[in-house]
Amino acid sequence: MHELLEHIEVEPEHDAVASVIFLHGLGADGHDLEPIIKELDLPDDLQIRYIFPHAPKRPITINGGEEMRAWYDFIPHSESEGSEDIKASSNSIYEFIRREMNRGISSQKILLAGFSQGGVIALYAALRFEHRLAGVLALSTYLYDAATTEIEQSDANLAIPIMLAHGQYDAMIPVMRAATSRENLIRLGYDVRWFDYPMEHQICLEEVQEMSRFITETLG
Fold first, then answer.
1. Strands (E), 11-76
2. Fewer CB near the terminus (10 Å): N or C of the chain?
3. What is the sign, positive or negative, of the torsion defined by CA atoms of 10, 205, 187, 72?
4. What are the residues whose beta carbons fall under 8 Å from the beta carbon of 104, sequence distance 6 or more?
């Protein structure tokens, strides 16, 4: 096993029986999403371990080459740029999944979640992983390279539940791009639940409540 990325772990009161690996967006870090645990207000008996990895720092083209935490270099209007970064980031997430399995957590009790860039990696990794996962929580994000996904998707994770949530006024990732991702995921056979909200590139209270229901269903 390779060395894990820097990360935050939050343990349940009793021994964990499920894990949520939650990936932040561009320029943030794991601390950015940590407060969501309290907001989700999930039942204690789910006994979830939360893991918030920090993406490595890399130069970002859209920000003039400035270095910041990112799962991949974002280049506007490009479908294929950043693919090597995306593969590498997904491999880093596989290390977390395999460690959870080695700690006694069933793969089917591991949920991948991500916001924006983190959601891209969560989808990319989950749809290719060789063991069945609980599902994917993909917020304000999109499916990267649907054609390649169709070729590389894992039989183990066909039809897994995927929650897609997006802001109707998102200027960073237009809602139509997310809607196209939804249609591609449905076409590929996944159990997609779609929610859109009158917001920008952010997370709202109603969305958190829907996330709570989704996590309870998939990890309960």
1. 18-23, 48-53, 57-60, 66-69
2. N
3. negative
4. none
**72 Cβ partners below 8 Å, 6+ apart?**
58, 82, 85, 86, 89, 117, 120, 121
Sign of CA dihedral 4, 9, 14, 19: negative
Q: How many residues does the chain have?
A: 220
pTM: 0.96
Q: Which residues are catalytic?
A: 116, 170, 201
- Provide the CA 208 distance to its chain's centre, in angstroms: 15
**Mind listing the pLDDT tens digit for each residue in 157-174?**
999 999 999 999 999 999
DSSP H or E segment with residue 85 = helix 83-102
Structure tokens at 215: 């996590």
Q: CA 45 → CA 27, 42, 103, 211, 215, distances in Å?
A: 34, 9, 19, 17, 13
Q: Which two tokens stand for residue 180?
A: 């196209």
Q: How far is CA 205 from the centre of its chain?
A: 19
- What tokens were used for 80? 């294929």
pLDDT digits (tens, 9 = 90+) for 67-86: 999 999 977 655 556 789 99
